[in-house]
Amino acid sequence: MRDETFGAGPRVWCEDGLFSSLRTVDEVMRETDAPGGSVTRQALISICKYVLDFLRAGHPDLGRTGPVCPFAAGATKKGMLQIALCDREEIDERDLLQGIDTVRSYFPEFDDPVGHEEEMYRAVIVVFSHLPARAGAELIERVQKQLKPMFVGQGLMIGEFYPDCPASGVHNPDFRALQAPVISLAIRRMTVFDAPFMLSDPRCLENYLQRFGQAAHSRVEALGHTSAARINAANPASA
Questions:
Q1: Which of 92, 118, 124, 187 is the one with CA 20 to 30 A from 81?
Q2: Rg value, the chain, Cα
Q3: 99, 44 in Cβ contact below 8 A?
Q4: What gap in Å lies between CA 54 and CA 232, rounded to an integer?
Q5: Can you give the pTM of this predicted structure?
């Protein structure tokens, strides 16, 4: 991966051309042409509208007040949310794992978020404009599951998005926030509010607890008895 600084910030892309250079949401919306023609252009516009019109807004089925994604508005306003494109119709799973893994270099590492408030808005969405619906969704699911423990270990979250994504909402199990119009993978900074996403994997839970300390323990315990038991299983020292 190489990086270059211009416009709103550094741009990164894979040497083998798997992903395009990064653009901010505003840049994508302003562009009149995109590599790969109208299908690619529509995919990029669709994911940007999903961010602008859905993630930044509230929803009656969300189960809480506020926007669907609390960080989307700040990330787009600050130009910290970047969009990358993959327009291949077929992708080898190993190549995709390596390609997504290289995106981590776009996120400078730091142990203490204090003094790095701006960095907490940094995020990347990789849009897969030409993958077949079912096979593409299955591929993205596998890649996300394989990479999540490693990403969480470095203070990052990786999430899968696609039209029929069955993932339930945190506050309303019938709400499907991850049903984006285009198959995508998103990488962002992990926060103390990510406790609900850590419970299914002891490795993720342990890294989350170590990174955020007592605040993390309190949030996981607040999720209920089962969650408290998982704390002890993942981190015996806290028992």
A1: 92
A2: 18
A3: no
A4: 37
A5: 0.84
What distance in Å separates the CA atoms of residue 151 and residue 131, rounded to the nearest whole number?
24
Q: Are 144 and 185 in contact (CB under 8 A)?
A: yes
What is residue 53's DSSP assignment?
A: I
d(CA 166, CA 134): 13
For 7, the 3-state DSSP assignment is coil
Residue 2 has pLDDT above 50, yes or no: no
SS3 155: coil
User: What letter would DSSP give residue 55?
Assistant: I
Residues 6+ apart with CB under 8 A from 69: 55, 56, 177
Q: For 10-48, how does the pLDDT look when each residue is reduced to its tens digit (9 = 90+)?
A: 444 444 578 988 999 999 998 755 555 588 889 999 999
Provide the strand spans (E) within 132-236: 156-161, 184-189
How many separate helices (H) and strands (E) can be counted in the chain? 7, 7
- The partner residues of 184 in beta bridges, in order of sequence, read 127, 161
Sequence letter at residue 193: F
CA terminus-to-terminus distance, the chain = 43
CA 203: distance to chain centroid? Answer: 18
